[in-house]
Predict the structure.
Amino acid sequence: DGGITQSPKYLFRKEGQNVTLSCEQNLNHDAMYWYRQDPGQGLRLIYYSQIVNDFQKGDIAEGYSVSREKKESFPLTVTSAQKNPTAFYLCASSNRDSLNYTFGSGTRLTVV
Amino acid sequence: AQSVTQLGSHVSVSEGALVLLRCNYSSSVPPYLFWYVQYPNQGLQLLLKYTSAATLVKGINGFEAEFKKSETSFHLTKPSAHMSDAAEYFCAVSVTGGGNKLTFGTGTQLKVEL
């Protein structure tokens, strides 16, 4: 079955360490997105990519980095520059007409 | 830029009662509108979407929403709440040429009581 896989589901890191969250899709979608979810704030866009080897900053890109070397993969790195990284991270993908989005099951990152 | 406002961060209804979750949007171009549901520690599941066809949109699990351009609204309703409807609901908007990205509201937590 086609879908999006995010791994790991839970992640713990020490403050000051970089960490990379994985997102893989087998839907043949061109576009991929990373959202951050905090209680009471909804989902906020971190980065998105509409095509391989190209990506754009979203609303809260500071402290994060991404790459899009393959159509299927869009990993997110949370760097030590991110002041408050503890959150639930959701990856999504969409087809070209942007009317069909698929979401992964999320990664909960806790920084201690 | 487009935006979405969800009125009421928490809504509580009795089982069997009408569910009404409010969503107002702002967009300078015709929008696409979506409602998603999220259960704890899970991703988002699409309930329904408006794509400029019929203004009354029927979705899964008995939910529907009506696009009202004059009121810039896209409220979600269900005639009779079930305990399994307890979850968080998000309204979202995207526009053509807007980078294909979804902009979300802050969510409404629905509680269903016996």
